[in-house]
Amino acid sequence: MKWRKSTGLVPSAPTRGPTAPGTLARVSEHGIVPTTVPEERTADAYLRLSAHLLLESERRNVHTIGVLSAVPGEGKTTAAINLVACLGRARGRRGRALLVDGDGRRRTLSRLMADGREGPRTKPMLVATSFENVDFLSAPAPESGPTIHTPSAWTETLTALAARYPQVVVDCPSVLEDPEGVVLRECVDALVVVVRAGSTTRGMLRRAIGRAADRVAGVIVNGARTSRVAPVGATL
Ligand SMILES: Nc1ncnc2c1ncn2[C@@H]1O[C@H](COP(=O)(O)OP(=O)(O)O)[C@@H](O)[C@H]1O
Ligand SMILES: [Mg+2]
């Protein structure tokens, strides 16, 4: 059975300050923290996607959600934070949500959320975050020389995490840049695909999804111009 998909249009034009569109988080001296006054349309888009995922996960026993896109800069990491922040704030859910840095080459989240803490960088580190009910698992610093993980290694790790966390959101690598993204895409229960308005082509989107179309639970159109923002949550 195919997923019903949820589309969220997220506005662009990042401004400095507490209500920057497109993101529910900001970088501070303490790492990534929630924005004090979340921009309403962005929050609604991600709450809608969270509602969709929570509903579908209760129906289908889905725990691990990969956020992926074709190339860097389309907004995967931003989307993964926004999504897990909203999942963590869902009232009535059991347990905590987990954000995983699955992009071991770039380590955007790990650098901001874990590298300042004590502990060896060569191992994944599990830390609490400033987001309500959200923990974070860092990616270890890359080994020298090219390497990827096997699908069974990812599946084993994600299964162990899903036993502790009802929702695990994985910030995946760009599928067209890093072969690890191709592996990870196959190992999560559901996918949220991020496209950048005005730059992601149909061909890129097709290659980003590959043969996983039946596991795409949501599409985020990132950087939509305010004038073009339509009601979010339209079913594809
Ligand atoms: N909706 C948005 N509006 C404006 N800027 C955004 C939006 N989403 C992401 N960005 C910015 O775009 C850049 C790339 O985003 P990022 O999430 O790191 O992409 P990726 O993980 O796909 O490489 C970051 O500087 C981020 O702050
Ligand atoms: Mg990223």
Can you walk through the features of this model?
By secondary structure, this protein is of the alpha/beta class. The protein has one domain (6-235): Rossmann fold, CATH 3.40.50. It contains six helices and eleven strands. The chain has helices at residues 40-60, 76-88, 108-113, 151-164, 179-187, 202-209; strands at residues 6-11, 25-28, 31-34, 64-68, 97-101, 126-128, 134-137, 167-171, 190-196, 216-224, 234-235. The strands form two sheets. A nine-stranded mixed beta sheet has the order 6-7-5-8-4-9-10-1-11, with helices on both faces. A hairpin with a 2-residue loop joins strand 2 and strand 3. Helix 1 packs across helix 2 (76-88). The radius of gyration is 16 Å and the shape is globular. 44% of the residues are buried. It binds adenosine-5'-diphosphate and magnesium ion (MG). Residues 10, 12, 14, 22, 69, 72-78, 108, 222-223 line the site of adenosine-5'-diphosphate.
Q: How is the largest sheet built, in terms of strand order?
A: 6-7-5-8-4-9-10-1-11
Oligomer: single chain
CATH architecture: 3-Layer(aba) Sandwich
CATH topology: Rossmann fold
Task: Indicate the topology.
Elements: E1 6-11, E2 25-28, E3 31-34, H1 40-60, E4 64-68, H2 76-88, E5 97-101, H3 108-113, E6 126-128, E7 134-137, H4 151-164, E8 167-171, H5 179-187, E9 190-196, H6 202-209, E10 216-224, E11 234-235
Parallel strand pairs: 1-10, 4-8, 4-9, 5-7, 5-8, 9-10
Antiparallel strand pairs: 1-11, 2-3, 6-7
Bound molecules: adenosine-5'-diphosphate (ADP) and magnesium ion.
Adenosine-5'-diphosphate is lined by residues 10, 12, 14, 22, 69, 72-78, 108, 222-223.
